Amino acid sequence: MGFSYWLQPFLDLLFPTVCASCRKLSSGSLSLCNSCLDDVRYLHSPLCVRCGALFGDGNGGDHLCGNCLRKSPPYLLARAVALYAPPVSTLLHLLKYRTDRTVLSTLRHIAAPFDFGPFASCDLIVPVPLHLKRLRERGLNQSLLLSRIFFPGQAKAIRPEILVRTRDTVPQTGLGGKERRKNLRAAFAVTRQENINGKGVCLVDDVLTTGATVIECAGALMRAGAKEVKVLTMARAVERMVVDPTVKQTAQD
Ligand SMILES: [Zn+2]
Ligand SMILES: [Zn+2]
Fold first, then answer.
1. What is the pLDDT of residue 176?
2. How far is the CA of 114 from the centre of ligand 1 (A)?
3. C or N terminus of the chain, fewer CB within 10 Å?
4. Any bridge partners for residue 42, and if so which?
5. Whose atoms come closest to the Cα of 236: which ligand?
6. What is the 190 CA–ligand 1 centroid distance (Å)?
7. Which ligand is nearest to the CA of 35?
8. Which residues lie across from 26 on neighbouring strands?
């Protein structure tokens, strides 16, 4: 038992933490109180085996959804840790728009029970890139930071330089699925083709909404010779309100 073990209760008294979601005082080192942590909605089967969409009825096993049956996405599978709803959406918003890195340890805590098994075979981990202009404005790429918390100890496999955003697209908010895809067309390029040839790639993003972003990125990686692309996001927005009518679609991907 170290010094900090004895010190922490006094620090909590002197500097109580405010929960990032409900704004109530809380103790402990995380950005959320225990009650808000309990509100995290993990995604469970039945899911679409391909895109990871939730089947609202909650019955039966995993199977292909109608969208993936109609048109197969360029990635092998997409999975998300949790539903894009408070408190996860609140934390991602703080990270992305307020550059609040203190939420990272809480996101790591939330992601801990997630089954990373399907991603164990990936050779490379590639975060969805921001345009250089956007990166300079924001000062961080949330997808790169999430890659580091999803894959600790695999720093060498995390390769943000492989995929670049060649066009500064207009923000996706308020655009429908078709418009999002049009907005993103040819917005991504692979810089080092020889490095991904025959490799299994894990593509990391913060939120999956319509999937337009990851479809564009996965397409670019596959065209450059990747063996397969698996997509991992911290959260997934529910497009139609099939799971919970209180979940509003406010994500931007
Ligand atoms: Zn709270
Ligand atoms: Zn699907």
1. 74
2. 22
3. N
4. 82
5. 2
6. 41
7. 1
8. 17
Let me know how many helices (H) and strands (E) the chain has, helices first: 10, 8
pLDDT digits (tens, 9 = 90+) for 72-128: 999 999 999 999 999 999 999 999 999 999 999 999 999 999 999 999 999 999 999
Task: Tabulate helix, strand, coil % of the chain (nearest 5).
Answer: 35, 20, 50
CA of 50 to the centre of ligand 2 (A): 5
Joined together, the tokens standing for residue 131 give 């345009």
Ligand nearest to the CA of 22: 1
Report the distance separating Cα 96 and Cα 191, nearest Å.
Answer: 25
Residues surrounding ion ligand 2 at CB below 5 Å: 48, 50-51, 53, 65, 68
User: Counting Cβ atoms within 10 Å, is residue 164 exposed (0-12), middle (13-18) or buried (19+)?
Assistant: middle
Distance 247 CA to ligand 2 centre (A): 20
Question: Has residue 237 got a pLDDT over 80?
Answer: yes
CA of 143 to the centre of ligand 1 (A): 25
The residue-averaged pLDDT of 162-169 equals: 86
Domains annotated for the chain, with CATH where assigned, are 1-39 (no CATH), 72-236 (3.40.50)
Q: What is the pLDDT of residues 29-70, one digit of tens each?
A: 899 999 999 999 999 889 999 999 998 777 788 999 999 999
- Cα of 24 from ligand 1 centre, angstroms: 6
pTM above 0.70, yes or no: yes
Query: Any idea which ligand is nearest the CA of 19?
Result: 1
**pLDDT for residue 77:** 97
| pLDDT, the chain, mean | 87
Using CA atoms in the order 206, 207, 208, 210, what is the torsion angle rounded to 10 degrees?
Answer: -130
Query: Does residue 240 register a pLDDT over 70?
Result: no
